Amino acid sequence: MTEETVTDKCMEHDQFKMIDTLRNILSRSQGMVLDEDLTEKLDSLCQSLKSSIKKSDSAEGGFSQDTETGWNLRNLQKHKGRERRKNDDIMDVIEAGLCLLDKDLQIVWANKTLGDWLALKESPLGRSCKDIFHCDETGIDSCQALKVFRGEEGRVLETWITTKAKKRLCVQRIAIPVTNRKGIIENVLVHLEDVTESDKSLHWLFLLQKLGEKMQGTLHLDRLLRLVLTCVTTGHAFGFNRAMLFLVNKEEKVIRGKLAVGPSSMEEAIRIWGEISKKYSSLEEILDSLEYDNDFDETFTHMTRQMEYMLSDTNEVIVTCARENKPILVVNAADDPHITEEFRSTLGVNEFVCVPLIVRNESIGVIVADNIYTRVPITPDLVNVLTMFATQAALAIENAETCKRLEDKVTQLTTTQQRLIRAEKFAAIGSMASYIAHEIRNPLVTIGGFTRSLTRFHFEDAKIKTNLNIILDEVIRLENILKNISNFSKPSIPKKAASQICDIAENTCSLMENYFKERKIHFSKEFAPDIPPVLAISSQITQVLFNTLMNAVESMPDGGDLTIRITLIEDSIKIDVVDTGTGMSEEELQNIFDPFYTTKSEGSGVGLAICRKIIEEHGGKVCVNSKCGRGTTISLFLPIH
Amino acid sequence: MPTILVVEDNKNQQLLYEEELQREGYTIVTAFDGKDAIEKVKEKPPDLIILDINMPRMDGIETIGKILSQHKQIPIIINTAYGSYKSSFMTWAADAYIVKSSDLSELKDKIKELLTNRPKDF
Q1: Distinct helix (H) and strand (E) counts, chain A
Q2: Interface test with A, best of B50, B66, B101, B107 (most A CBs within 10 A)
Q3: What is the DSSP-derived secondary structure letter of residue A106?
Q4: Is 0.90 topped by the overall pTM?
Q5: ipTM score for this prediction
Q6: CB pair distance less than 8 Å for B102 and A595
Q7: Which residue, A178, A163, A170, A133, is CA-closest to A22?
Q8: CB distance A448–B102 less than 8 Å?
């Protein structure tokens, strides 16, 4: 083996090694944004690759023309050809587009991947890079290749291209200087990287962060809900045609439409989308001007607010979404057994997505979005991002709701506090006034009373009578002032209002049920239907029923039957309280309504007296029927006015 | 001549009622508080009682209870400087409730009315 072949072999080995490293780096950088380090590494690798190619070139040129050398040369050339093909094969399968430009920005070499990606029909060799990349930068200062030739950094750009296989790719271009042995940049290697996936993720991350910030900064609930739906519908974010927001009401156990954003017809859609794209150029601008364009979705919002579903109604897709805390993508609602016909026809679209608004593992609502006008299919990727967005939105909504609740509570507390202060003030003034009125009235009664009695005497001096009258007039004036003060401090007497006697009786009885049980009383109620309301002071009627029932219970020390019966008799309501107690003698019967009359060891004896007084003040009457040892029936009559 | 028991802790007022009602032709017995009043009733039940509510030792409301449990036929007029007792259930046991005034005509009219309508109809 000649020395040359050894060198050749070494060189070949080095090249392979370098190419391996290059591939390694490239495969590692898949889906990554290339950083400076990596670019530099690639750069230096390419340089060494180039210099080693050069070395082999010069080694070739240095051979003498003898036969052996000629054979060797042919061999070497063959070998070199093989190496080239191998290199080309490698370059062609690398998942990166590569091309080498000369100083005139003409392509001197390109790999197959580049041709595929750029959908080139002919070989790009010898053509201007401008023809191939269709970029605006070529020839002007910002062209990355030119920059690299000037010794500056090759800028990283992101562009969308369509491949031969009609695939949309987002590529990143990196220009790498390739220097000769003297360190002068002779060529620029343009490296195209497919960053579609990473770019998408980056884009969504960035968007989610931006929307999240915006939402967290909005504590006004209505404005927040609008913001959320605008994010879902704006072309700068999720770009759905329409979006609806439903919120769960836990007390009522329903999920109810709250707000919707989106045009209500195709014509409106075209008009509004046109206006928006003319008016706003960025997401921020749209979100910032939210309050001003809330005129177009009234019809849609109105429709949404009519939508309400019981949380127990598991046939509804919205309910399922909220209950199972998972997004639901419906592709063909017409053939989907999980979608009710009513929901489908209300929405008027076959493809839509429901995403839950989850806070602490519980759905507080659901967002429904569709592309009713453009009919653009909803991808699972979009659903995923929308779900992430919904989680952020849910937190923001929860925040705003908590804030609103707090605000309401504070307002309520402030009002209550003010009312209490006012009431306390009045009470203080009242008791003060009442005290003073009393203390002054007593001496006034004496002064005035005696003055009046003096006026009845005959006086020689007419002046005495005149003066007495002056005193009397002043006393009367003072008494009138006091009357006004005590009217002010008097507690207000309750007014009669239309009251349902059966309801009052029901409430009173339920309060006493335990007491009945304790005393072994078998209690029953018989209320006739359709008892009309009567004008009454319900607290006083309660007192009457309470006193009457207590009396009945006390007449049955060993237990018994107690019945309250309410019937309609002509133009009165009749309330019978029937007991099976000891009953009353004739004498007792005559006295039972007298205050302080009692046959019991305890009790004041005013109970039934008060009852009669109250019932009479209501324009009614009280009757008692009793037989010794057989029980008593007290009948209360209340006229229907 | 009907006897009226005036229960009043203020001496000057007691004197005023005594003078004025005597002029109307009634026999007046006075008591300065509830306990005193009950004793006076025990000695000789009057035909009518005029009662102040705010009094030392035993107040008017308690006094009504004590008197009425023994002599439920005696009419009672509550005569007080306070208007607020009017809504209390206990004062309902009295036959009349009059807010004190230097003009005694309302009181005099009530006395006449209650004495004419005897025996008391409760």
Answers
A1: 19, 18
A2: B101
A3: B
A4: no
A5: 0.81
A6: no
A7: A178
A8: yes
